[in-house]
Amino acid sequence: QICCTTSTTMDFAFPLPRALRTGDRIVKLDTASLGALRAKGGREQSSEDALNMNTIINVMGERSAEAQKLPQVITTASRLVANDHRMYTLHEYDPRAKSTCRVIGFIKVGEKKLFLYDTAGKMHEVTPTCVLDFYVHESCQRCGFGKELFDHMVAAEGLEPHELAIDKPSPKFSAFLGKHFNLHDVVRQTNNYMVFAAFFRGGPPRKGAGATSGAARSAQGSRSHSRQSASSSKRSDLGVADRKPLNPNSLPTRQTAPAPTSRQPPRSTPRISSISFG
After folding, report:
1. pLDDT tens-digit series, residues 159-190
2. Cα separation of 217 and 165, whole Å?
């Protein structure tokens, strides 16, 4: 059933990390699972396993950005943890492969605060679950892996495809949604997110189950600390209402003395010449 070519898939020269060694082809990675990966086993083993897992996430993010011709990588291990996103990865697990592992693709989701227009042109402030990144290796496309990933994600999140907001979908992704889920009625937005007419039916959009899970709540403290320590120059995701940059015209300026008026005595008078500037 695997149609990927061995020479071009995302093969890694190390064993499959424990976080992916569940017996399932698709595994969810989030703050809780990555934290547990670092906590299990001895210190040396945990460090190596965590490093390998980070490598897989970062390389997949780089390949996705390259395929979509993005100006910068939007999926990294550090951002996955800091932003409380969920990444569903599709991989092959062969217990006999002691020194290599193979990853086929991933889909990343998370909540974003958005301002969206409905079909009547009314603006809504909502925080839906969004598809933030989606990638299947080029040699594995048109083999059903993308559909398998997407179906698993919506089932795990407890959502329907039309309830998702899509962050700047590629033409391939738009065609994918139309082909497999009959989603064609796009409601145009002023930001980079795409939603469909059915998104606004039935009241406010629901959040995915992963956004309110017990694991997510237990990790809330560590996420809060990560967010507070994050650099203010961190890339803001496309379409999200972020802090506005400072307006140079609104910055305080050095106060200057008022210009002399005609009522002030001229500089040649004794009154002015008696002032000491020492």
Report:
1. 999 999 999 999 999 999 999 999 999 998 99
2. 23
